[in-house]
Write a sequence for this structure.
């Protein structure tokens, strides 16, 4: 802003539509598809609102293609907030949050990844190829939800795109690394789940005693690093003793 | 010794709740909090607490507990239920919607709830559990908050925070009356356009029934199945409490306090915040209808509901033990006759 090379400023209202969600929230939707550029707009909007919260804003919840804005109807109203948000200026910046790249150690296959063989068979790849493809991709943290600390990581390579399991599991162990469609994720706690389990990580992704309570933040990226059973056990022990420091590759651009 | 009570029988599902965990939904942390926030606020007002103090949410059947470490003051709101206070072999019975002073050593038993699926039992000072992410509400699915992240069990000890100055025991002279026919107001959207005209017509003009699949996360409803223009699945987006999501079966699910923060089913409408406490009171088998309102109407309804809450709190009067007015009889009559308008 102000200098001759500044990017053309775009009014947010021209890029988004507002969807009603009762009298305490509305969605700011940037598109229908799961797309990194659309998701960047979502997180950018959340960042702009966090930097200067309008009166009556309660919290915002980013997801793939929209930002749910929670507000207090006794303090403000949807019309006022939508006007204000519509007038926000999208400066073209796509970087959001800390922009860290997390290196997540994962033990693939065997008991840790009970569906790896099935995934290999269904995709026509070898188990080694599935692992190489999964670990060879840098994933974007699109959104967190489903469970506290569950991050939707994408995009999974198209060659690993499978529908969810027809029979969801009643119990998926915490730390399971799983895939479905064009997403991968890690179950932060034991829960029911319908994704294909291909590996396991000993890391912890949710701690309600901390603020923020999750390891990942919007704008972060994630890479999986294959480890063997011994390394997995050693990391698990370090995590249990509270002396494991998750590995990052430093700042992304 | 710290004033506390020890659970003898936990009831059906008794959890510590306040007004919910705000500010962490972006991390996937649900709001939780009392299903009937109005009952929570009224129960807290009856014992002189701040409006959002942590209290016990009771479902269907109340707990029994023993009072230790000093006397306590408590109040039940949201449903009618017999409260028995036993000490030295003598049992006194009380109704809901009033504060009761319970001496140390007494045993308290809250009976079956009538008029609502949930009620709130508040204690002067509030329940002293450590706040987690800014709230004392129990997150049953996440297993944190409240008392050890779970429903209460026999043997649990719950401490109460200290109270400086107890005023007189208060009662609510005209408590809200249980509804037999429930109409919930709802704003169409956020994905109303994912449904056919016939689906919107059916949703807003035919009755639905609360199925057996109902818990603090939500209630699956039976009734006219809703049809989609396309598919039921959307790219997951944020969910607000009161959202009505519709999975592929076409039967709607009304999402309540413990709902997950984002989800991948289209949402046909959102129950307005003024009517959420009424939704929280519904029991399996209850019939309900939905009426469409605009966002502006919903915001106005919330302001009116807040004014009504303030009026109810201002109407509270000191309990007159042994005076001419028999409060228990009065409450009983109200609940049976429905003479006082609902809220």
């Amino acid at each position: 802003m102000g200098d001759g090379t500044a990017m053309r400023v775009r009014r947010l209202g021209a890029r988004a539509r507002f969807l009603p969600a009762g009298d305490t929230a509305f969605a700011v939707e940037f598109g229908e598809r799961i797309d990194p550029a659309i998701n960047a707009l979502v997180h950018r909007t959340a960042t702009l609102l966090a930097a200067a919260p309008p009166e009556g804003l309660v919290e915002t919840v980013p997801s793939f293609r929209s930002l749910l804005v929670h507000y207090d109807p006794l303090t403000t109203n949807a019309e006022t907030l939508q006007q204000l948000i519509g007038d926000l200026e999208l400066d073209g910046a796509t970087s959001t949050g800390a922009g860290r790249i997390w290196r997540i150690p994962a033990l693939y296959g065997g008991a840790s990844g009970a569906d790896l063989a099935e995934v290999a068979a269904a995709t026509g790849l070898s188990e080694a190829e599935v692992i190489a493809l999964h670990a060879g991709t840098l994933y974007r943290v699109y959104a967190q939800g489903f469970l506290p600390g569950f991050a939707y990581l994408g995009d999974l390579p198209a060659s690993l795109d499978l529908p969810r399991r027809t029979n969801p599991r009643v119990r998926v162990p915490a730390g399971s690394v799983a895939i479905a469609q064009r997403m991968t994720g890690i179950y932060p706690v034991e829960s029911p789940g319908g994704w294909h389990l291909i590996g396991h990580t000993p890391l912890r992704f949710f701690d309600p005693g901390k603020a923020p309570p999750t390891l990942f933040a919007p704008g972060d990226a994630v890479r999986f690093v294959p480890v063997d059973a011994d390394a997995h056990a050693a990391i698990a022990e370090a995590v249990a003793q509270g002396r494991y420091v998750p590995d990052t590759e430093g700042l992304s651009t | 010794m710290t004033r506390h009570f020890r659970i003898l029988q936990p009831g059906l599902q008794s959890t510590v709740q306040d007004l919910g965990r705000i500010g962490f939904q972006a991390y996937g942390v649900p709001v939780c909090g009392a299903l009937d926030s109005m009952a929570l606020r009224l129960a807290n007002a009856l014992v002189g607490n701040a409006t959002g103090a942590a209290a016990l949410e009771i479902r269907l059947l109340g707990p029994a507990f023993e009072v230790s470490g000093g006397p306590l003051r408590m109040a039940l709101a949201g449903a009618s239920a017999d409260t028995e206070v036993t000490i030295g072999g003598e049992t006194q019975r009380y109704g809901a919607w009033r504060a009761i002073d319970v001496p140390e050593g007494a045993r308290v038993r809250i009976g079956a709830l009538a008029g609502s699926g949930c009620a709130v039992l508040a204690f002067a000072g509030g329940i002293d559990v450590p706040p987690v992410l800014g709230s004392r509400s129990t997150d049953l699915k996440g297993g944190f908050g409240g008392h050890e992240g779970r429903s209460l069990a026999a043997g649990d000890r719950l401490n109460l925070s200290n109270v400086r100055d107890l005023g007189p025991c208060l009662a609510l002279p005209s408590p809200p009356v249980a509804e037999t026919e429930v109409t919930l107001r709802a704003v169409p959207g956020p994905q109303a356009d994912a449904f056919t005209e016939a689906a919107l017509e059916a949703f807003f003009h035919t009755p639905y029934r609360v199925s057996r699949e109902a818990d603090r996360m939500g209630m699956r409803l039976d009734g006219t199945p809703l049809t989609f223009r396309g598919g039921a699945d959307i790219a997951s987006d944020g969910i607000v409490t009161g959202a009505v999501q519709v999975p592929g079966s076409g039967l709607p699910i009304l999402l309540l306090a413990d709902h997950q923060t984002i989800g991948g089913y289209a949402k046909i409408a959102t129950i307005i915040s003024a009517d959420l406490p009424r939704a929280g009171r519904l029991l399996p088998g209850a019939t309900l209808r939905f009426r469409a309102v605009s966002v502006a109407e919903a915001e106005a309804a919330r302001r009116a509901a807040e004014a009504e809450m303030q009026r109810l709190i201002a109407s509270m009067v000191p309990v007159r033990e042994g005076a001419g007015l028999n409060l228990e009889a009065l409450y009983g009559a109200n609940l049976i006759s429905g003479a006082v308008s609902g809220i």
Observations:
- The longest helix of chain B spans residues 295-314.
- Chain B has two domains: 4-170+317-337, 182-299.
- Residues 299 and 308 of chain B are 14 Å apart (CA to CA).
- Chain B touches chain A through 50 residues (CB under 8 Å).
